Amino acid sequence: MSKIKLQPVDMPDGRRPYPFLVDEHNDEGLEGNRLVGFQVGDVQTIVLHIEEWRKEPGRAVGLVPVFAAVGGKLYAQQPPIGSVTA
Fold first, then answer.
1. Whole-structure pTM over 0.85, yes or no?
2. Eight-state DSSP code of residue 10
3. Residue 32 above 90 pLDDT?
4. 84: nearest Cα among 17, 14, 22
5. In this structure, which long-range contacts are made by residues 73-81, counting pairs with CB atoms below 8 Å and at least 24 apart in sequence?
6. Contact between 45 and 36 (Cβ < 8 Å)
7. 20 to 30 A Cα–Cα from 86, which one of 4, 5, 13, 51?
8. What percent of the chain shows pLDDT beyond 90?
9. Once rounded to an integer, what is the mean pLDDT over residues 39-59?
10. Strands 46-49, 34-39: pairing kind
11. How far apart are CA 25 and CA 40, in angstroms?
């Protein structure tokens, strides 16, 4: 089982957020929630869906990850992604 590391950009005060580790096959990420795609900033529209992201993980750089919570509710997790490591 391979994990893909999504490292958010550093915060304005210099702190580095914890990375997201997502299984490359089942989209499981933060606390068992499922990665569904990525959006631009606060705009609540997914511009990079999970299927497209799998083909080119680096396209997530600069975008904000969107997760589906266990109950199905979608939420974005700021700040945007700064780097991707497969």
1. yes
2. P
3. no
4. 22
5. 74/36, 76/39, 76/42, 76/44, 77/8, 77/20, 77/30, 78/8, 79/8, 79/9, 79/11, 79/17, 80/8, 80/9, 80/41, 81/6, 81/7, 81/8, 81/9, 81/38
6. no
7. 13
8. 62
9. 92
10. antiparallel
11. 24
DSSP 12-80: TTSPPPPPEEEETTT-B-GGG-EEEEEESTT--SEEEEHHHHHH-GGGGTTSEEEEE-TTS-EEE-SS-
d(CA 61, CA 24): 17
The mean of the pLDDT values for the chain is 88
Number of Cβ atoms within 10 Å of the Cβ of 57: 18
Question: What pLDDT score was predicted for residue 28?
Answer: 60
Q: Which of 2, 4, 3, 1 is nearest to 58 (CA)?
A: 4
Token representation of residue 51: 């299927």
